[in-house]
Amino acid sequence: MAAPKSRDQVKVSLDQAGYQDLKDGGTQKTVIIQLPKGGDREGVLREVEKKFKAKYGARYNPSGGSSSVGRTELTGQFYIEAKIKGGGGSGAGSDITKLAESAQCVYNAACYAKKPYTHVGLRGASGKYDVDEPIDNVLTKLPDDWVDSSKMIAAFLKKKFPKTTYKHHRGSAWVNRLYAHYREMNKGAGKPFGDENKWNPADIWMCTPTGESAISALLRTKNLIELNSLLIDHYEKRDIIGVSLKKAVGTVNFKEVNVSKQRPTFKFEKMTSGLRGFFDSGDAYLIFDGGKAQFRKFGTTWQAELKGKNANMGKMSGGPVKALVDLIGGPTVNFVPQREIKQRTDENIEQFYEWYTACPDTPEMEYYDFYKEVMKKDMNWYVSKILSAQIVAIVSAFDTKKKNRFASGLVNYAGSESELSGPYAKVY
Fold first, then answer.
1. 427, 156 in Cβ contact below 8 A?
2. How many angstroms separate the CA atoms of 187 and 192, rounded?
3. Which of 188, 207, 270, 307 fits as disulfide partner to 211, beta carbons 3.0 to 4.6 Å?
4. Quick one: 225 exposed, middle or buried, by C-beta within 10 A (0-12, 13-18, 19+)?
5. Measured at the alpha carbon of residue 337, what is the angle toward residues 358 and 326, in degrees to the nearest 5?
6. By the 8 A CB rule, do 65 and 31 touch?
7. What angle, rounded to 10 degrees, do the helices at 379-396 and 346-358 form?
8. What is the pTM of this model?
9. What letter does residue 337 receive in the DSSP assignment?
10. Model pLDDT for residues 293-328, shown as the tens digit of each residue
11. Looking at 181-267, which runs of residues are DSSP E strands?
């Protein structure tokens, strides 16, 4: 049986057989067939085996090479691999999120069980993972860069959390029960979180049998503080580990977040009702050590956008801003939310004027003159500015300790490290 004369001859043969998106592999005798996202890599390699068995003695080897789906091997030590075209970056879209997170659970389970990263090995660890992505997709559709990341992170987590009884969850009944309870607690607290990831951004959960059975106690907690406290207790005992994932390249970095009551602190410096003057913009700013927060309407929603010295830090919508103000200010403070300001009324214009006069950087102005100015503005400016003036007036009246707590609360919310955020480990 003749062997191919060169890699180019293999590429010509593949092209003639209908495989036209080809590129050179890592060796002089390897050819890669590139597939679109969602392509069946194993299916293609088995198909190549059938087409070239008689001509080149093709044989599919599921354990060959470094790819999770193996390769098809020809006589003369020529190899054909299949890869998803383009792979996925560390910020890959939602089309790969479910797949990559489920895959991490599968690779974790195999690593902890000391099983090889073959199809047989990964399937054989099924008793130790509970995911919402079909295992066939994990085995055939995960891009190789994510396969490499999954292997590195699995090995790292096993070393960091060496208990051998973990079950690895993504989208399981256990996870769904936990987050359903969180949503009830969040609602009862006045919805301090507009996004569940700001409470806890864990993508997967590692649970020992003790951790899995603890779901009953978790569901009996009566507020977010109790829920977080119990999760911290189980984290410290290494029975429940929430893990936030990003693709690892070359090495794995690690950080524990919210595992104690201590949070990063930031110093309040000042607030301004507008960088260009009160009536010239619909925004307001809080300046803190390390950056600033701009309050204004973004589209249809009033919120805060935080910017550090070198990069954006995230946003905090109006609901969580209100919850933070009310938490720090106590019963004497009640932030008026956007939903209650649907149109201009005599009452809210008078309230607007009170907030205007309470801002530390606004010049004195008679009520009638103020009234005439705001009546010149459209409703978009009015809603954005009245809410922005309100936040400046309220926070400016806080004492120094509360101002610093508010500034820290804004920044920590954006980083999922607020006073009410839950514990997790971050790997990236």
1. yes
2. 8
3. 207
4. middle
5. 70
6. no
7. 40
8. 0.71
9. P
10. 999 999 999 999 999 875 678 889 999 999 899 989
11. 204-207, 240-245, 254-257
